[in-house]
């Protein structure tokens, strides 16, 4: 069974959704959740579901020997970024080439790049007058949000939608599709 490590920085709704999805279907196991923030609620969600957690500072996360040893010790096959805000070090991208994905709350290549995360993205989508938004799952590369696109799912938005409304619509897509994309990647 494939073992997943989820990298998180915040609340962790995607993290919890992924853990529950694979606990229910048995096609993979979330073996480890790593956060760069000790106060990330994702850690509490993971612990409550019986998943091992770890907090790493930016300096620790950039320590090649420490990170790769942890991945090996936990027998990690695949890494999922779910709201992780640190730049992934090159050594980890190389070690998990085409085995590390990220989710982005917009239809890339629009509204991506450094600083474009969370509510910043939804506000930019609103300000641009877009008629649709969505989520993108992509391979992690050396540039923020520039990896090859794996899957995109869209939803219509209207001029009356606030940034919060846009966020809620996009989040529904994440909850429905993100675990399924991970499963497809792990089983093909």
Radius of gyration: 16 Å
Order of helices and strands: EHEHEHHEHEHEEH
- Put simply, the count of helices is 7
- Tally of strands: 7
Work out the helicity level.
40-55%
Q: Features of this protein?
A:
188 residues; alpha/beta; 7-stranded mixed sheet; 7 strands; 23% strand; globular
Secondary structure elements and their pairing?
Elements: E1 2-8, H1 13-25, E2 28-35, H2 41-48, E3 52-55, H3 58-61, H4 64-73, E4 78-81, H5 90-95, E5 100-104, H6 118-127, E6 132-139, E7 149-156, H7 163-187
Parallel strand pairs: 1-2, 1-4, 2-3, 4-5
Antiparallel strand pairs: 5-6, 6-7
Helix pairs in contact: 1-7, 6-7
Quick rundown:
The chain has helices at residues 13-25, 41-48, 58-61, 64-73, 90-95, 118-127, 163-187; strands at residues 2-8, 28-35, 52-55, 78-81, 100-104, 132-139, 149-156. With 188 residues, the chain is an alpha/beta fold.
Description:
The protein is α/β, with parallel strands linked by helices and 188 residues long. 40% of the residues lie in helices and 23% in strands. The protein contains 7 helices and 7 strands, in the order βαβαβααβαβαββα. The chain has helices at 13-25, 41-48, 58-61, 64-73, 90-95, 118-127, 163-187, and strands at 2-8, 28-35, 52-55, 78-81, 100-104, 132-139, 149-156. α5 links the parallel β4 and β5. The longest helix is centred in the C-terminal third of the chain and has 25 residues, at 163-187. The two termini are 13 Å apart. The mean pLDDT is 96.
